[in-house]
TrEMBL record, chains A, B:
The keyword Lipid metabolism does not apply. NCBIfam families: thi_PPkinase (TIGR01378). Residues 24-119 form the Thiamin pyrophosphokinase catalytic domain. InterPro entries: Thi_PPkinase, Thi_PPkinase-like_C, TPK, TPK_catalytic, TPK_catalytic_sf. Pfam families: Thi_PPkinase_C (PF21275), TPK_catalytic (PF04263). It comes from Parabacteroides chinchillae. It is an enzyme of class 2 (transferase). This is Thiamine diphosphokinase.
Length: 211, 211
């Protein structure tokens, strides 16, 4: 199996517990960890390539063990996840998966999901995986893979253009999604579906992991 | 102490584990439960006044125990939480708190948060509490209570007008928030703060429970 990402970033939210994100952690060559995720990685036998943050959430023993790979970034304007994303960009990685960016405080979850769209121009691919599903930012028309019956939700960011869909059970035609709930709980009909975006549309697609 | 709500609705997300939502469950006279929350309520010695949903998530023993208060609502277009909100509205309750509406699948979380604004016109007050904070929908200028240092995040819904703030550490002046992350991680300076909305602005305010 080809590993679909060249770099995983682990944020300070809920550490993943399901099989797929844990498999990917073991298969992906580079792990960049926000400081709050280092202990959870260590407990699973995983060593980060780089550790980013202000180091207030890492035990002293691990701080000493990993002294050669700690990068303290002082910038109150951006969170540790964003610092890690910039670090990955500067290091030249192109296919990024973010784990641990949801769960716990919901305002962090919302902020982290929306930041995917800000960071998308820096990479060939940047996605976010939780125990419940995969988040994909789209700034242009795309065809995505799916399982028949897979639950799909679409969230528009403001200012949003119009979107249309093909291959979803409840088709959307040239529509602006003006509230978060309007594009939720759709369903893939086959192995792929297509979302067409007008020029100003920017969306996040959520593909649920369960059926 | 006056109980601030006359009705609590418990949705199918993460059941609360922290003191404040559990206290409110014990103090509030009416509990409307989505079917997936009935077992968790029962385990804590709490009996719902009404149970809403398609009853695929309630054990048979509890379905029998509570046969007198089960309301099966067949409508594929709206989720169980929305069905419960409409039930509370029809029953005449005016001050609603929603619990268990976040956690687990993030697309449900996002949908449920945004539905607060849809439902706000039906009640004098409708808010959502999680283990991490309180969500308040605002469609007009308001002054909210706070603790000095309390973390506050503001999320605009599309189409958004402009907002301004008083009493927050990083003031916002006549600004459209065009991405979810832009209004996150602000902080209350004192016991209240004020958010001023232009006519078309519609926002969700998140007041974090921790300091």
């Amino acid at each position: 199996m080809t590993v679909p990402y060249d770099c995983i970033i682990v944020a300070n939210g809920s550490f993943p517990t399901t099989a797929r994100p844990l498999e990917l952690l073991h298969q992906t060559p580079i792990i960049i960890a926000c400081d709050g995720a280092v202990q959870a990685l260590y407990d699973r036998g995983l060593a980060p390539t780089a550790i980013i943050g202000d180091m207030d959430s890492i035990p002293l023993s691990l701080r000493e063990l990993y002294a050669d790979r700690i990068h303290i970034v002082e910038n109150q304007e951006i969170n540790d996840l964003t610092k890690s994303v910039f670090y990955a960009h500067e290091a030249g990685y192109k296919h990024i998966l973010i784990l641990g960016a949801t769960g716990l405080r919901e305002d962090h979850t919302l902020g982290n999901i929306s930041l995917l769209l800000e960071h998308a121009p820096l990479f060939d691919r940047i996605e976010m995986l939780s125990d419940y599903g995969l988040f994909i930012p789209l700034t242009k028309t795309a065809t995505l893979t799916s399982r028949p019956g897979q639950q799909i939700s679409i969230f528009s960011m403001y200012p949003c253009g119009e979107i249309s869909t093909e291959g979803l059970r409840w088709p959307i035609h040239n529509r602006k999604l003006t509230a978060w709930w309007q594009g939720t709980l759709n369903e893939a009909l086959g192995d792929t579906f297509t979302i067409t975006l007008t020029e100003t549309a920017r969306i996040i697609v959520f593909c649920a992991s369960g059926k």
